[in-house]
């Protein structure tokens, strides 16, 4: 079977009509960022921000059309909006997309329907990148699995998906019915990441509505099955895209990861406020790279000043969930795709992660009344 080309895809899309212009989507010039690799096709359709919802059938039609082509293994089509609602000029929309509105009933309701078999969803977030959010998300997920729970891991960090590498998974997800994707699996947990569809090195320009659409597909169109908990590795930061996500995903609670420096804690505070704004309970703070345990002499060094996150958690009125040292093994194992919790379960750091996961589970149980269900629905 010969490799599907961009021309083949555009030719097929020539038969899909854009209801706004009446032209086909290719002539209308609304296909963006078309990529194809090993039969995996991804692109965006640009639509006016205010018509996003009504363009869903067009998105689906385009996706089905491409998926039907011989040689196509998967088709991922997302909607994107060039300009925010009400802007008539030619200014491109800044990353982060349309300003998020306050939580709306139907959106949250819809969120709950996205993942019918999933009993609870927790976000692992950080105020900024590089603090070890993804490493923490992976090890909490594995710690929860070690506690006997069925766990999924959703990589919502679509700007820098790291789950394929950290979880040691390569290849593409399978689609048995041509409509939904089976999540990838390793170490007993189910994993989904945009990194399975798009190369890690391929730069993608994501805009607000596109981010949301990609994320919703990774929830709705993936066979997550029955899970006790889905751990969501959030994109770093506290911008509009993150806020929208915090609001649309029916989160049971959030865990904030920070390093101990003052400047990182300032960002962590922003993260906390973001979740509070959308009424998602913050389960607590994890201090990562808390201290350095020298492998040569076993001496402990407080490189970044230890304990800052604990104090900050107290000040902010949230729990401190635990600390993890900066350790060469954590980095090496994480970058090798063998997270420390599974590679060295007897290590102190693995023990720390399991303790943190245990506290998270207690919070989940409390938040869901032991049912691990019913993400909070906010109707305003
Ligand atoms: P983020 O998701 O916040 O951007 P990552 O989890 O990707 O951060 O971590 C960034 C880098 O730091 C990775 O190379 C990771 O292996 C390393 N790292 C994270 N936590 C630790 C730790 N406790 N000790 C040593 N290295 C760590």
| Molecules bound to protein | adenosine-5'-diphosphate
Helix residue percentage: 25-40%
Give me the Rg, rounded. Answer: 21 Å
The CATH C-level name of the largest domain is Alpha Beta
The structure class reads alpha/beta
What number of structural domains do the residues give? 2
Describe the structure.
With about 375 residues, this protein is an alpha/beta fold. It has two domains: about 5-100, 2-Layer Sandwich (GMP Synthetase, Chain A, domain 3); about 115-370, Rossmann fold, CATH 3.40.50.300. It is built from twelve helices and twelve strands. Strand 2, helix 2 and strand 3 form a beta-alpha-beta unit. The model is unreliable at about 85-110 and about 370-380 (pLDDT under 50). Bound molecules: adenosine-5'-diphosphate (ADP).
Pick out its properties:
single chain; 380 residues; alpha/beta; GMP Synthetase, Chain A, domain 3; 2 domains; nine-stranded mixed sheet; three-stranded mixed sheet; disordered C terminus; binds adenosine-5'-diphosphate
How is this structure best summarized?
By secondary structure, this protein is α/β, with parallel strands linked by helices. The chain has 12 helices and 12 strands.
Layout of strands and helices, then pairs:
Blueprint lengths: L5 H8 L17 E7 L2 E7 L9 H12 L6 E7 L24 H10 L6 E5 L7 H14 L4 E5 L7 H4 L17 E3 L2 E5 L14 H13 L8 E5 L6 H9 L4 E6 L3 H16 L4 E12 L6 E2 L6 H9 L3 E7 L1 H9 L3 H4 L4 H20 L13
Parallel strand pairs: 2-3, 4-8, 4-9, 5-7, 5-8, 9-10, 10-12
Antiparallel strand pairs: 1-2, 6-7, 10-11
The site of adenosine-5'-diphosphate has 19 residues, from helix 4, strand 10, strand 12 and helix 10.
